[in-house]
Specification:
Layout lengths: L1 E5 L6 H11 L7 E5 L9 H9 L14 E4 L14 H6 L2 E4 L4 H10 L2 H4 L7 E5 L1 H4 L8 H5 L22 E3 L12 H8 L6 E4 L3 E6 L2 E6 L3 E4 L2
Length: 228
Amino acid sequence: MKFLLTSSGICNPSIADALVDLLGKPVAESTALFIPTAVYPFPGGGERAWKAIHGRASIPLTQLGWRSLGMLELTALPTIREENWVPAVREADALLVWGGDVLYLTYWLRQSGLADLFPSLSDTVYVGVSAGSIAVTPYNCDAEFDRGFVPDGSDMAQSADRALGLVDFTLYPHLNHPDMEDAQLSHIQKWASEIPVPTYAIDDNTAIKVVDGTVDVISEGDWRLINP
C-alpha cells in the first residue's frame, strides 16, 4: 500500500498535494471508503462518527470532494460474506481511516479481515488520521490510554502496545498540542527512548508519506525524528 499518515487530516496545501500525488489523479476523480470505527469507544463516539462521515468534523478528510465516498464499518465485516465487501475495498482508490482508539481500531482491522488484504492492495492509498495513522506502525503510543476503554472481561487489551507494523517506524501525532499533555516533546522523547524503531513526532500540520518503504515528511508545521 501507499500511506499518507496524518495527525489531523488533509489540513494544508502541502498535504493535499501529497494526497493527489499518491492517488495519481485529482481527488474529484477518486473513490474512497471511510472507516470510522476507531472513534466508537469514546463518549459520544456515534455522534463523532456521524459528523466525520458527513464532513462536519473539523478535521478535513471526507469533505474533500471525492468522486464517490462509501463507509466501511469494520465491526460489521465478520458477519458479511466477503464477496459483498472485498470487491469494494479492492476498487477504492483510498481508504480513509479516522482517529480515536488505536487499540480498538487495530483489533477490528485484524478481526474484520481487512488487515489480511493490505499486502495485496498495492495501488491503494491508506490515509490515516491520528489513531488511524498509529495503527499501521509497530507500536501503539496510546496503549496506556486505550486500556481504559476496554470492556470488563474482554481480551482486547492483550498486546495493547503493539499495532500492525506495516511500516518500519512508529508515529506520535499532535506534537506540542496545547490541550494534550502527553503530546509534549519531552514526554514523546521519553516514550520513544524505549522503542527499538525510529519515532516520528508530528504536529497537526505534518504528515508522513510512505511509498515502497521510502519515507517523506510533508510539513507546514513542526516535527521531530527520534532515533532509538
